[in-house]
Amino acid sequence: MGSVAVALSASTASLLFAGDAPVVGRSITDNRLIWPSWDVVVRTLSLHSYNTFIVVLGTTLLGIAAGIVGTFTYLRKRAMVSDALSHATLPGIACMFLILGDKNLIGLLSGAVITGILGVLVVLGLRHVSRLKEDAAIGIVLSVFFGAGMVLVTFAQQVKTGDPSGLNRFIYGKPAGMIRLDAALICIAAAAVIIGVVLLFKEFRIVCFDQQFAATQGWPVNLIDVLMMGLLVLTTVVGLQAVGLILVVALLIIPAAAARFWTDGLLKMTLLSGLFGALSGYLGSTISALFARLPTGPVIVVCAGVLFFISMFFAPRRGVIASLIRKHRLRRRIAFQNLLRDLTELEEAVGRGARVPLPALLAKRRWVGVDLRRALAQAVDQGMTTSDEQQQVRLTRSGRAEGLRVLRNHRLWEMYLISHADIAPSHVDRDADLIEHLLPPDLVRELEEALEQQARIPPSPHVKGALP
Amino acid sequence: MSPWNWTLDGWVLVVGVLSACSCTLLGNYLVLRRMSLMGDAISHAVLPGLAIAFLISHSREPLPMFVGAVVVGALTALLTQAISRYGNVEEGAAMGVVFSILFAIGLILIRQAADHVDLDPSCVLMGNIESIGLDAMVERVPSAAVNLMIVMALNLLFVGLFYKELKICAFDPTLATTLGINSNVMHFALMIMVAITTVANFEIVGSILVIAMLIVPAATAYLLTDRLGVMILLSLIIAAACAVLGRILVVLGPGWFSIDASTNTAALMATIAGVFLALAVFFSPRDGIISRIYRRTALSLQIVREDILGFLYRWHELDANAARAVQRQDVLLALGDSLITRWALRSLVRRSRVHVASAPSGGEHLTLSRQGITEASRLIRSHRLWEAYLEKHFNLPLDHLHMPAERVEHYIDSDMRKRLDQDLTRRGRDPHGRDIPKEANDI
How far apart are CA A320 and CA A309, in angstroms? Predict the structure, then answer.
């Protein structure tokens, strides 16, 4: 492994990571961040320097465009197709470089467009004509096109007298080297994306959610798909210089995935995704301008990542924490209702007002200890049970009412399964166990009508002779 | 002097073959389990792993870096699963989120350390297989070759020991679970092996080309066979061929094409793998595009040929006194004047199923040869038996019998005819009252 860490000539390093002046006068094990002076902060934030202004503007616009396009890519489950697309741009760039030299940015990017589209077509084609699955098709296109690109790049480095190592900027991105033309290209791309999405919002929506339905309604589904792909290609190609072909996929996926946590509406999601993209671009380029030795592209991606994880954990409904809380509450409610039902059933067997010792409760079902303890405490709190010194539990009136309600739901559902779904009595208990906690009142009424069980508790089907 | 230098290129060859084969061995399972992109994600995650290990251990010792990279690689698989499960994110997107963030962190960390130790950026992309011979040697064997031999041995051991388990988990995880094989454990073990292999190959072929070696030869083999053992063997051969051809082209290619520049071996290996895959997509004997087109054309030709025979037979049947001979034009009119009809007719004449005689009045008269009559009568027999069968069992009106029979007649063999015949009560006549020809024997 020693050779992984190959000592690198200073020139190559500066080509790859150019963007800030080399820091001199520090010891080589010094990894501390250098905090920027107040002056630098003010100048950066006020976009005083023209260079900073171009970079911040370019990356922010790129974030908006990628965020918006990414929404649709994400919803079409094509996130990784965009990865194949970005890697497939390399052979086009290298080819155009061999033909035109490196001065012609538009030429290089049009090469990227051509092989990028070709790559996507190959992914789609491989799925249609061979039995390879999508994941393999994506992996193949990604690695083979990239390999072909690297063949051409190394070749170009030996043939061309120009500056072929400048091709690296398309791989890792080099936003600090952005010039007005780059920013202008991004600006045009962002404008095209916004106009395209505004004009075709309805069309994109229908293709994203139900392609077959769209086709039966007479929408030109393939054309819409091609337009969507076109916007994706456009955004990817102009993004190459800013974040590089390996990381541009991050800007396409992450803001959209983050936005998905906050909303179920497409319009909201698109706007949010654009906003997240813009924020990542702005924050990333600003932070990297403020600190030495922070390459812009990766910092933008990490900013997007932070937004993603914030969304994933803290989003109100779909977020991880919110859903954990929901699950926890449901679990407590189920344990509570199970306890009351068990007590009611034991009363049914032994007689009303019976004192139930804990072991009898524990034998009734497989309790997790914590759940039972919590449920007991809650029941006592709400005055549904009483508990004496020997830890014997007794139902109160209100507890019995609630227990009977749950038990009744359980039995109604069992009867319904037996009489209407023709399921053997020995197979209905588990189903009913799951549903008893969730039956809404109107459904209970319907069950009552269907089973002609108005007020009384149906007998358990598991006791011999209970059924007619 | 030949540009091929055995001491240098020999080792590059060995390392290339070992690298390609060790990746491919596991790649088979990634392709089968539809997790090809996991290889992609893990290989990207190697970079931050190396960087973190370096920043923590402050050394370039192989072991900590290796462990760091493997840990982060395995973490990628876990994180992806966690995000897609708990965050309810589609798996592909979850993977994209994880690996791109990790790769970005890797780049930042390397930049942080860039003043004193550098990962060569071109090494990250393409590896340094070219400079294998210049590396540290262990007993006159390059250390990279030793590493790869160990990894190859580990992979062989893993696949050899758990062949059955991996196979079941790849094809039917649920069945695996019911058989008492924990498919989650197998999955994770596979991920760890992929991580180890990726890390070891990272310095040879680089972070992106390693994906080519993981997936492409395995996918090529997948197109060629339906048996796992054969697939693994084929993929290993293809992988080795990629490595060998790649090196040969890099060293000798410039001489052949008289170009004064060579290129990168690893990148060329990936490209050649792509070429092999393209060949398989087109020419695979069962699923290849060309083979399928060929089979389809052969089938439609066969059907049209039989239709022509049937047409001639019916004509002779109706026109028993031979009042008017069949013209070539009649056939083309009846079956549609298309390239395939003309082709089928020509092939019938060539196989002397149909005789052509130029008529005195101009034009060509067609008659069936004896062999032609035999074959035609079989076809007509199939057709009319089927009509009779449909009439008996399906209660279809008379004018609805011909079309289905027209379609099915080409697929009814002598065995089926025998069974149809036995099933029918009113033998000898079809529902339209025509004779059902007797089963003809070959001449």
Answer: 10
DSSP-assigned beta bridge partners for residue B354? B368
Residue to mutate among B32, B52, B107, with most A CBs inside 10 A, is B107
Q: Which helix (H) or strand (E) holds B101?
A: helix B91-113
Kindly report the number of other CB atoms within 10 A of residue B314's CB atom.
Answer: 15
What is the residue-averaged pLDDT of chain B? 86
Contact B90 A79 (CB under 8 A): yes
Compute the Cα dihedral for A446, A449, A453, A458 and give only its sign.
negative
| Nearest by CB: A143 against B65, B215, B287 | B215
| Whether the predicted pLDDT of B272 surpasses 70 | yes
Residues A393, A398, A399, A404, Cα dihedral to 10°: 130
Question: Does domain A36-315 sit in CATH 1.10.357.140?
Answer: no
Q: Which residues contact A235 (CB under 8 A, 6 or more apart)?
A: A62, A65, A66, A69, A189, A193, A252
Does residue B288 carry a pLDDT above 60?
yes
Among candidate residues A195, A224, A279, the one with its CA nearest the CA of residue A76: A224
Query: Is residue A20 pLDDT above 50, yes or no?
Result: no
Q: Rounded to whole angstroms, what are the CA distances from A342 to A250, A353, A410, B117, B329? A: 53, 14, 12, 68, 89
Instruction: Encode pLDDT of B190-233 as tens digits.
Output: 999 999 999 888 878 887 788 999 999 999 999 999 999 999 99
| Per-residue model confidence as pLDDT tens digits over A74-88 | 999 888 899 999 999
Which residue bears the tokens 């396409």?
Answer: A252
pLDDT by residue (tens digit) across B109-138? 887 765 555 555 556 666 777 776 666 666
pLDDT at B120: 58
Residues of B in contact with A246 (CB under 8 A): 44, 100, 103, 208
Q: How far is CA B307 from CA B297, B313, B340, B415, in A?
A: 15, 10, 12, 21
Give which of A18, A192, A211 is closest to A113, Cα–Cα: A192
Residues in contact with B131: Cβ distance below 8 Å, sequence separation at least 6, in sequence order: A3
ipTM of the modeled complex: 0.85
Nearest neighbour of B120 by CB, restricted to A6, A256, A293 = A6
User: d(Cα A368, Cα A145) in Å, to the nearest integer?
Assistant: 55
CA–CA gap between residue B431 and residue A116 (Å, rounded): 62
Dist. CA A308–CA A259, nearest whole Å: 8
Domains and CATH numbers, chain B: 6-284 (1.10.3470.10), 292-368 (1.10.10.10)
CATH topology of domain A319-468: Arc Repressor Mutant, subunit A (1.10.10)
Are the C-beta atoms of residues A274 and A64 closer than 8 Å to each other?
A: yes
* Coil/strand/helix, residue B399: helix
Q: Do A139 and B111 touch (CB under 8 A)?
A: no
Place of tokens 């050899």: B160
Q: Where are the domains of chain A?
A: 36-315, 319-468
What confidence score (pLDDT) does residue B157 get? Answer: 95
From start to end of A114-249, where are the E strands? none
The pLDDT-based confidence of B426 (bands split at 50, 70, 90) is low
